[in-house]
Amino acid sequence: MNRFSRWRGGFKNFWRAFRHNRLGLLGLIMLAAAIVIAVFAPLIAPTDPYARVRVKVEDIYAPPSAAHPFGTDDAGKDVLSAFIYGSRVSLIVGFAASLISLFVGGAVGLIAGFYGGRLGNFLMRINDIFLVIPFLPLAIVLVALLGQSLINIILVIGLLGWSSTARLVRSQVLSVKERQFVTRARAIGAGNLHIIWHHILPLVLPLLLANTVLIISLSILAESSLAFLGLGDPTVISWGSMLNFAFTRSAMSAGAWWALVLPGLGIVWVVLACTLLGNVLEEIFNPRLKAHHLSSTDKMVAIPNEIQPAPSGK
Amino acid sequence: MKFNPRRLGNDPASIALDWRIDNMSSPAPLLEVKNLSTHFLTDDGVMHAVEDVSFTLDRGQSLGLVGESGCGKTTTMLALMRLLPPNGRIVKGQVLLEGRDLLRLPDSEMQRVRWSKISLIFQGAMNALNPVRTVGDQIAESIRRHGLVGGRLDNHALDQRVRQLLDMVGIASSRQDQYPHQYSGGMRQRAMIAMALACTPDVVIADEPTTALDVMIQAQILDLLQKLQRELGLAVILITHDLAVVAEMCDRVLVMYGGKVAEYADVDAIYNEPLHPYTRLLLAAFPDLTQPEGKLVAIPGYPPRLHALPAGCRFEPRCPVRIGKCVTADPPLREVKPGHWVACHLVTEQLPIHPTTSLP
Amino acid sequence: MSLGEGEYLVVRGGALALALSSKGNMNMGRRGYVLRKVAGSLLTIFIVLLINFFLFRVIPGDPAKAGLKDPRVRPEMIEAQRIRFGLDKPVINCFKGQMVFEASLCAVNPFDTQLFIYIGNLFKGDLGISYDQKRPVADILRERIGNTVILLLGAELFAIILGSLLGLVAGWKRKTRLDTSALIFSLTAWSLPTFWLGILMFMLGSSAFGLPVNGMRTTGLTYANFGEELADVARHWLLPSLTYAIVLLGQYMIVMRASVLEVLSEDYILTAKAKGLTNFQILKDHALKNAMLPMVTLVLLNLGFTVSGAVELERVFSWPGVGLAIVEAVARKDYPVLQGAFLVVTISVIFANLLMDLLYTYLDPRVKAE
Fold first, then answer.
1. Contact B133 C289 (CB under 8 A)
2. HSE, side-chain direction, 13 A CA sphere, residue B294
3. Which helix (H) or strand (E) segment is B96 a member of?
4. What is the DSSP letter of A199?
5. CA–CA separation, C202 and B150 (whole Å)
């Protein structure tokens, strides 16, 4: 078996299973749509939300109209355009931060699981601490101290999200390490790197992938929360910052529901997409039995041409 | 007891057993299974797991159910108690317990029958007990459920009963407040036995009760089962693939292959005059301690795939004495001697069918 | 849902591993296990103290000294601050302010460094003085923490109870329409940012139901008796609490459902069925307790998230709790309050974790002493 055949075969099976899951496909389409909107934002958005414009008082919180399908915000600018551009920040932060979590967490988990010993214990101790410290307070403190820039936010979110990945990877590596084929590989003289690449990684990557998709959704939520609390990068528009402005500038009492609903919907859309994807990946890589012992057994006695026994309690 | 094998329609593969019970000369059989057939609906198609299994069980009698892994032994027993997984279907047959067909009972009735009339000792009791509840509690649960402690829940009487049961199987009654993980493997199996007897059932099905245990414990468990059977007058169905156990413990033997009955006879007949080629190979495969130099006989080939069953005899591909008919026609189960049933063309062609007129 | 759901992933992927990893100490007996866990928590707290301390000393902009330039801070306060925190002393041995290395400071008495002064102050309950309110941070937090607990407790209880029941039913009725709709509901609830749901509830609650959406009490209102006060607080509590309950509900339902599916596939459920127990009896007496164990683990791991959600909700509804204190402190650059609140919140979470951990030993007999 050559180096990639194990990977290739696995991918084919995976795709087959994935195709049949409707929720998963829905998630994929939703995510793809969001990415397309983000990438082609300048072409899609009716106006440029970053451009300086003169506004009249009546333009502020103007309800939806032909010119502004989703009304205007507290600064009189088009909500729809801001929404489209806002997708960029949310997605960029989401993906970038999760990449950091992925690599850091994956590496830590792999090392801790594979090499174990004192190093492994030490790493897990640190992991435990990160797990226990509440995310938002620490993130707030860090961003407040480091400064509100996009890079900082990405770093903070990424560096606080690695702990669950590490734990997951470690437990998977531990269970794979003990399996027979690893022992056999060692017996024929395989080195550590070879074992990791050929045996352990193929079994760890699927779970890691499922985990990463969920980390992406968490990162997007984290960015929006930080932005909502006023800790976002003030030079960019994100869905969280749109909501922050709307909230602090009395969109509620102005009845400007459009400024509040749309950005939130954007967040929900993307996060839900990732969640659905993560869910289906989880189901594929960690298949659960299709039925359990208490599943309905009304049809168990299926003797044809007979009056079926009456199920009880109906 | 009189029995008249009859053909049903033009289907040579099915035989309806018509039992005419002579109440005067013998007590009715406790359990009669007639033509029990089970399918499983799987992604790869319909699996014909069990077909036309028939047998009877008298009070106090013990039946050994023998066969390879996957031949349908456990499935038959689960079907009997209507405990099949959700993709299982019972498509034919009757299960008469004291004359009542269990397959036609409503669910609520069946729930009342379970454990109080028939109980089951699962294979591998390691996980069959709930790890977060005490053993005593789980035993008591079944007694409480079937309302067997007075009319009301008398805690003292319940406690006494649980102690008595544990005592019967040789577990210190102080252990009733312990959890399953605090028991050893053999103890857990014994606890399962105690639990299976809690409601004084008429029939106990023991599914490979000793497979997961070491030989010394095996002997203990089997002795225990035998003792209990004698003392309590239980009818026992013992599922196993260990022929030595069957020889020791059972009155009658049902040999299954590929989901069908291959041979069904008294234990002496099975051991001294095995008729079905599969039975003979099974017995031959069993190493003989008196002949340490003998060659080990193995049965070549593989068990049949239950999705794609041949038209003829299921054992035919591996059978050393197959004849032409075996490929095209599935041999029906025939009584070739009093109380001795075989499903094999070769056998039935050599021995004429004997309708009997007297008790076996 | 908002932050910290990574913890949920731990549950899915191996939080049972977390619980099971504690199984490894079965041989130590309950006492050994408890001691180990307590020691672990104390160590974690200590490390958090260190982190908290160094964060505010190391990061450029030295907030500890920032107060000196803050116009709100009067000279007397500066002097008091200097004495209290030893701001002219070395941070720790060998390092002076801003973690600049200076060899001459290595021989200094370690207890005379900012670090130990800080720890000493903590033991005395002194968390500094707020720049903005000019009173002890500890007092401010003490007033607020009760409010946060009030907010969270009701929502948690509601979500745990209802989430467990719904998850149980959903798992039982797998592949039915009930299950699918429950799954969709919980996945969607999961995907909602906590603050956004708060905003929606804010708009809906105030316009459609006339419920109050600001703070904990109606301003300027005097109460005739405690009952009136309670009623007023309850009306203010309703919307934020409900918001949080929904968010948590989605989460707990997903986990409970997953847990139930695992449990119902276990052998002992088949045994229970064979014993002739009804479905209801099996669910109640066998499935529920086993399926709840991962729930306990989840609630435990979720405490970090719980706090994060509180921060957001308190902002939306101006609920005077610790979360709002943090938000205000950031906005007003009131670093003592920020630092103190972070510490209090984190230590609370660690303690709550510890309690839950110990509680778990009572629930799962496999973890008990032999």
1. yes
2. 12
3. strand B88-97
4. I
5. 59
**What is the reported pTM?**
0.81
For residue range A218-233, list pLDDT tens digits in order.
Answer: 999 999 999 999 998 9
Angstrom distances, CA of residue B133 to CA of B78, B262, C167, C290, C360: 25, 42, 22, 10, 15
Q: What is the largest CA-CA distance in chain A?
A: 81
Q: What are the structure tokens assigned to C197, written together? A: 């749901």
CB contact, 8 Å: B131 with chain C? yes
Sign of CA dihedral A266, A271, A274, A280: negative
> Is residue B21 over pLDDT 50?
no
Please report residues of A whose CB lies closer than 8 A to that of C352: none
| Chains with ≥3 CB–CB distances under 8 Å to A | B, C
3-state secondary structure (DSSP) of residue C216: coil
Identity of the amino acid at A309: P
Are the C-beta atoms of C2 and C309 separated by less than 8 Å? yes
Task: Say if B133 is an interface residue toward chain C (CB within 8 Å).
Answer: yes
Residue of A301, A308, A312 best to disrupt the B interface, most CBs of B under 10 A? A301
Q: Which helix (H) or strand (E) holds C179?
A: helix C177-191
- CA A257 to CA A253: how far, in whole Å? 9
State both tokens at B155. Answer: 């805690």
Residue of A260, A220, A225 whose CA lies nearest to A240: A225
Whether B108 and chain A come into contact, CB under 8 Å, resolves to yes
pLDDT digits (tens, 9 = 90+) for C337-365: 888 899 999 888 888 888 888 888 788 88
Q: Which two tokens stand for residue B196?
A: 């299976």
Domains along the sequence of chain A with CATH: 79-289 (1.10.3720.10)
Interface test mutation site (partner C, options B121, B130, B177, B193, max chain C beta carbons within 10 A)? B130
Phi, psi (degrees; rounded to nearest 5) at C230: -60, -45
Instruction: Please report which confidence band the pLDDT of residue A83 belongs to, taking 50, 70 and 90 as the band edges.
Output: very high
H-helix segments, chain C = 6-10, 16-23, 29-58, 63-69, 75-85, 114-123, 137-172, 177-191, 194-208, 226-264, 267-274, 279-282, 288-301, 303-317, 322-331, 335-363
**Sheet architecture: strand order including B252-257:** B118-121, B203-207, B235-240, B62-66, B252-257, B260-266, B340-342, B334-337
Strand partners, B55: B33
**Considering chain A, what is the average pLDDT of its residues?**
84
The single residue listed with the structure tokens 């005379």 is C112
Nearest neighbour of A302 by CB, restricted to B91, B109, B111:
B91
Q: Which of helix, strand or coil describes residue B262? A: strand
Cross-strand partners of C96? C100
**Cβ neighbours of A216 in C, within 8 Å:** none
Please give the structure tokens belonging to residue C349: 């979470």
Q: Which of C248, C251, C194 is nearest to C8 (CA)?
A: C251
Amino acid at B164: Q
ipTM comes to: 0.86
Which domains are seen in chain B, by residue range?
Answer: 5-250 (3.40.50.300), 256-358 (no CATH)
CB of C47 within 8 Å of a chain A CB? The answer is yes
d(C-alpha C304, C-alpha C295), whole Å: 15
- Tell me if B116 and C270 make a contact (CB, 8 A cut-off): no
Average pLDDT over residues A101-127: 88
Residues of C in contact with B124 (CB under 8 A): 267
Query: In sequence order, what are the residues at sequence separation of 6 or more whose Cβ sits closer than 8 angstroms to the Cβ of residue B151?
Result: none
**Cβ neighbours of B112 in C, within 8 Å:** 276
Q: Check whether B248 has a pLDDT greater than 80.
A: yes
Which residue blocks in A40-161 are alpha helix, DSSP H? 41-44, 79-114, 117-132, 135-146, 150-160
- Interval B97-111: pLDDT, tens: 988 999 999 988 999
* Residue C96: pLDDT over 50: yes
Q: Report d(CA C190, CA A214) in Å as an integer.
A: 11
Question: For residue range B143-154, what is the model confidence (pLDDT) as tens digits?
Answer: 888 877 655 557
Decide: C340 and C275 in contact? Cβ < 8 Å. no
The gap between the terminal CA atoms of chain C, to the nearest Å, is: 40
